[in-house]
Write a structure and sequence with these properties.
16% of the residues are buried. Strand 1 and strand 2 form a beta hairpin. The termini are far apart. The protein is built from four helices and three strands, in the order H-E-E-H-H-E-H. By secondary structure, the protein is an alpha+beta fold. A three-stranded mixed beta sheet has the order 1-2-3.
């Protein structure tokens, strides 16, 4: 499963506003942004992201996932506090 397939599945099943997936070998990093995370604990947010990917996690296609989940308000604040590095 490639990054774009993961992004598409999460966007469709969780109705996410934004999702970013990167891979470094077998390690995947997911940043998910959506209203669905509002009021949920970090554990519940991660469980929500894991759910659409459980078949691939169970068969070993996906492992070593790191997940960062944000509401849209939290994501705007995160981008202000931690802007992306600009290369010169």
């Amino acid at each position: 499963m490639d990054c774009k397939q993961i992004e598409q599945r999460l966007t469709e099943q969780l109705q996410l506003a934004e999702v970013y997936v990167t891979a470094d070998g077998s390690h995947y990093a997911i940043t998910a942004v959506g209203d669905c995370f509002d009021g949920l604990s970090r554990v519940k947010q991660q469980q929500l992201v894991y759910a659409p990917l459980m078949a691939e996690i169970a068969d070993g296609s996906l492992h070593a996932l790191s997940i960062k989940a944000f509401t849209p308000v939290q994501w705007r604040r995160e981008k202000l506090l931690n802007p992306p590095a600009v290369s010169k």
